[in-house]
Amino acid sequence: MLIEARKLRKYFSLGHGKQVHAVDDVSLGIAEHEVLGLVGESGSGKTTFGKTLIGLYDKTGGQVVYRDRELPQRYQAQDYKRQASEIQMIFQDPYSSLNPRMTIQEIIAEGLLIRDGGNLGSVRDKVVYWLERVGLHGDHLSRYPHEFSGGQRQRVGIARALIVEPKLLICDEPISALDVSVQAQVVKLLGELKQSLGLAMLFIAHDLSMVRYVSDRMAVMYLGSLVEVGPADAVYFSPQHPYTKMLISSNPEPDPVHERQRKDVIVSGEIPSPVNLQPGCRFAGRCPLVEPHCRLETPMLRTVAANHLAACHLL
Amino acid sequence: MNSYEPAAHEFASVARQPGLLTLTRPSQSYWQDAWLRLKKNKRALASLYLIIALLLMTLLGPWLWHQDPTLQDLDVISQPPSFGDTALVVADPGLWAGVTADTATLVPADPDGKLVLTATARIQTVGAATTQYVRVSWDSVPGAAFYLVYRNDHAPESGEDLGLPLGQTLAAAELSFEDRLQLREQDYWYTVIASDEIREATSFTTERIHVQRAITATQARERLLPAPLGATVALQSHPFGTDSLGRDLFARIIEGARVSLFIGIVAPFLFVLLGTIYGGISGYFGGTVDAVMMRVTDFLIALPFLLFMILFRIGFGIGPGESGIFPMLLALVLLRWEDPARLVRGQVLQIREEAFVQAARLLGAQPLYLIFRHMIPNTIGPLLVNLTFSIPMAIFTEAFLSFIGMGVAPPTPSWGSMSNDGLKSMLSSPHELLFPAIFISLTVLAFNLLGDGLRDALDSRMRSRE
Amino acid sequence: MSSDIILEVDNLAVEFATFGGSVQAVRDVSFKLHKGTTLAIVGESGCGKSVTVQTLVGLIPMPPGRITAGSARLRGEELLGLSSDQLNRYRGKRIGMIFQDAMSALNPTMTIGDQIAETLLVHMGMSAAAARQEVIALLSQVQIPEPERRMRQYPFEFSGGMLQRAMIALSIACQPEVLIADEPTTALDVTIQAQILQLLESLQRSRGLSIILITHDLGVVARMAHEVAVMYAGQIVEQGSVDDIFYRSAHPYTLGLKAAMPGKTAQKAELHEIPGSPPDLFAPPAGCGFHARCPHVMQLCESKAPPLFGAAHQARCWLHHAQAPTHPLRQQLLATTGNGSC
Question: CB-hemisphere CA count at 13 Å for B245?
């Protein structure tokens, strides 16, 4: 494993003794050159997991091991600097992820200048190389982010992250703010870069079909805990956990005949508030197969097929 | 519906090279974009030009307008705006003997009262009627013991219309009067009424006399306008008139702008700077530091400004009637920085969580780099708007304090103290109040409109989500 | 067939005056909405799909917006150019509307029940007691549990999915014939989206609603639509039945969109991107709006805008011209029954 979360936990305090259980005892690893897809609805804690994993949030509990070295519990500026050439991230919102007062050149060069010092002139060639590598014209160095479309900004974000040649790239919903035709562009670009650079990626998204396309393995989170993890096709085509089944069956396919034939799945209820959770299966409230002991005992992940784990008492 | 019929060759396919994405629109930085937006806003642009004109007037005014703002010219007190006036050079008035009648020819008053006093036959000017002096003489009236002289600036319709007399002669033989009372260049109606110590004549004679602007030879020498007697010289123009001490109002407005704009610009710069540092620290560190620092600003809001202004004056040993620019500056800076501090804190708290700051963190950026490279530049827009709105507030505060006598003291003019001076003669010479008041209003309005325009131009988040 | 046309839009054109000049947001858009069916207008952000429907209900501020051409008739009555009084009479009552962001479409200071009741009082002239009963009935129709309790709550007490349900209840309160749903599920999670889509479908069945569904998601289109109009750069580039669009795509853009979505095929088919980005509508390109990104571009496409070819299934592409080189796409329009030659 390149990076591994062991019982990683992140609670946010709301005061008055209330705590949001954003990530609760999640153990998940990413191997070298592997793309792990992480799906879940909003409020499932998938983004918090990604950010806690790489130190953008302080850990409430558990540990993260990167190449056999434990990462700090709370990050100081020096800790980020130490891991800058190993782990980088691209963000969901292509608008807030680029500083509107900086030119494209300054944005992309930032990592190099912080790491190696020097000035814009000395890294110019490298910046142009990366700008063109992500499919943007090298002439656009002195443009500002607001002049680019969402997809183009996302490319700039990718160039900024990759110019320091990290081993692991966290992609936090990198395509959910983009148009369909542009999503494919960005996904293909990420796929190409992954191949040529040998990157490992954590690909966080809510679009299951896109995640299946991108990932080697797929993990599903619900209300802060991991409910299923396995090879992408296995999770997508033979989901084991009732929640994964619900998630996949509620995703409409671009195929009218298939949609007309679909039996309407019972999709009941909504994701509850993750405040002060009690023991028991998190999904019990919405599960069509719920049994009394589901509400009392928290299910553990267990192997259901080769490399395929799910957390459900009924399996 | 389509009328175009393409020719066969037009269906040839076009080969495309897979290229890099390019942009077609011209490049624009944040400030270029903001300036374009501001330029579309007519009111803001006009305000900007007005403010530039005001600043130029303050800085270059003394070189272009040579009038000394402290020069008192008692000959031209409370004069309305004048431009390009000329005046005749006349001899110094000296002591005028006047016109006296031969006592023998006078008909004494009739003790029986049978003799009815009549109007004098005629009134005539002696010498030229000028603003320096008007000398009138008249024919004697039989039975008169002395004469009352009236002056009006319109033709009197009846005896009641005359008002109070300008003066009276002391004897029946005195048949002339010299008027030197605040003469202006205009027509006056002089009226002479005879009196026999008991009654006044019921009929009177009025003479319309045109008064010509003149200065005496001595005054001409003093003003470095050497000219022979009887020549016409160009007078100093007073575009805004003069005040009650004959000082040029325009020169004083220029001089006063220095105080007003100094306080108005320096104080906001200082308190916005202080607020930025304070708010930046509070926002960046957050948590307990932030909580404590923000309670301090809460406390600050509760402090009454005027009370502190008075305390500072006392503290610095500045008595009533003495100039207090420094305590004013200090009070403004110490009591007004909490607004920008809150603004910056809010901005920093918000920007701290933005993805680009997290990205920079992951790239290994140090706190100072984050603050100066990412946070402060993104705060400057709202800060500039805040600064622009703070300036009129400070100008108005200065004007108000000077108006109530807590600001600058004479002879230093400021728009506020000039308004206060002008208030005393508001009815007789309104220009003394009007001009400083107009300048305060225009400046405050211009800065407010510019602030509005800047807010629209800068706060629009750079078309990013259009 | 023509008797059940509820809404007919002809040659609609809308432009906006902006800092940079005028933007031609909608160019020559025509479509028909049949009773009890769903017309999906699909396209990427900025293609003019929202502007089109917002123009119909008078939600485009004018200025900066301006209708430069076209007409829109609701059962034969002209909608465009109505005064705001006239607009208010049919908006809400004859055309209901739901938005992507239900939170900002509802008044945060009024309870959900009061907002729906207000509409009933104003438009339907109901008594307060009758309105209250109707509100409870409506809320249970949109499957909000415990309607008596929920109607006394404020929007912030509702989750996103519940809020969208409340929004739907509000929009159908006056029994409109047409429901315009502008990206109703874009902000929702996929399980909630499935619930809302199911709800819309059952309402359509029970009330005979005609729905205009604005979306960018081909999955939602396949799930919901009977008719589909694909918009690109302010124009409809292809329209037809849902099967026409998905199985007999006749425009390169529609094909591109489909290829850009990973389908549910067992093997990982290559994902095909559409290169480039949509044109800048400040200066729409001279020829076809799609020519810069089109894999089949011809000389003609760069200079002349193509007309709509076909009748029931239409596509705006020169490849369908009789003289164009034979291309697989050409068969698609001809394959559709009911399409004469053009």
Answer: 12
